[in-house]
């Protein structure tokens, strides 16, 4: 019995020392887990904030585009009521359907296509819809320098068939844009 008591006396302090150490280790591990979770939540919050800013910029851009489209549509309607002359005022008053019908004039396939093909020589070939997208996304157009009516007149002569309908080379489209600037009144340069 005395031996049991001495053994118990030796084990008890070791057990008492072990429990606080285990508690401290568990506490330290829990703190590290919380710090890791906090870091991941902060990173997710930062990502969500950046995404929110990007979406707000996109929304503002689309709202501006809608405003421009509404203004040009109103301008076109009032101009149509006063005059039967075609619109030739520049990029902000020219609509894609006018562009496509103009460049597809004289071709049997009158449906605008967004198709982009590549010629045997590796040159990009743009269908009417894709040519329109190329023009309106170009920096020259965004700066208001391109006279779309003039550019579409120039593109008419550059149309070729790739087996699926009329297409325009990317180089010819760019050249038509640049020539429409050069043929302007001088205040566009």
From TrEMBL:
Statement: the UniProt record of this protein carries the keyword Signal: no
Keywords: Coiled coil, Nucleus
GO cellular component, one term: RNA polymerase II transcription regulator complex
Compartment list: Nucleus
An example molecular function term from Gene Ontology annotations: DNA-binding transcription activator activity, RNA polymerase II-specific
Main location: nucleus
CDD domains xref list: bZIP_YAP
Residue stretches in coiled coil: 24-72
Keyword Nucleus: yes
Top-level taxon of the source organism: Eukaryota
PANTHER family: AP-1-LIKE TRANSCRIPTION FACTOR YAP3 (PTHR40621:SF8), TRANSCRIPTION FACTOR KAPC-RELATED (PTHR40621)
Protein name listed in UniProt: Basic-leucine zipper transcription factor-like protein
Native source organism of the sequence: Stachybotrys elegans
């Amino acid at each position: 019995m005395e031996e049991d008591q001495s053994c118990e006396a030796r084990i008890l302090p070791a057990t008492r020392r072990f429990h606080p150490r285990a508690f401290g280790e568990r506490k330290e591990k829990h703190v590290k887990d919380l710090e890791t979770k906090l870091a991941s939540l902060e990173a997710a919050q930062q990502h969500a904030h950046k995404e929110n800013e990007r979406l707000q910029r996109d929304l503002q851009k689309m709202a501006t585009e809608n405003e421009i489209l509404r203004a040009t549509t109103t301008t076109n309607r009032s101009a149509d009521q006063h005059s039967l002359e075609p619109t030739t005022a520049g990029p902000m008053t020219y609509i894609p359907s006018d562009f496509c019908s103009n460049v597809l004039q004289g071709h049997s396939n009158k449906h605008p296509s967004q198709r982009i093909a590549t010629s045997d020589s590796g040159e990009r070939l743009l269908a009417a819809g894709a040519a329109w997208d190329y023009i309106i996304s170009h920096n020259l157009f965004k700066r208001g320098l391109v006279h779309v009516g003039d550019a579409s007149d120039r593109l008419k002569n550059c149309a070729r068939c790739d087996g699926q309908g009329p297409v325009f080379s990317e180089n010819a489209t760019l050249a038509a844009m640049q020539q429409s600037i050069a043929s302007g009144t001088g205040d566009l340069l």
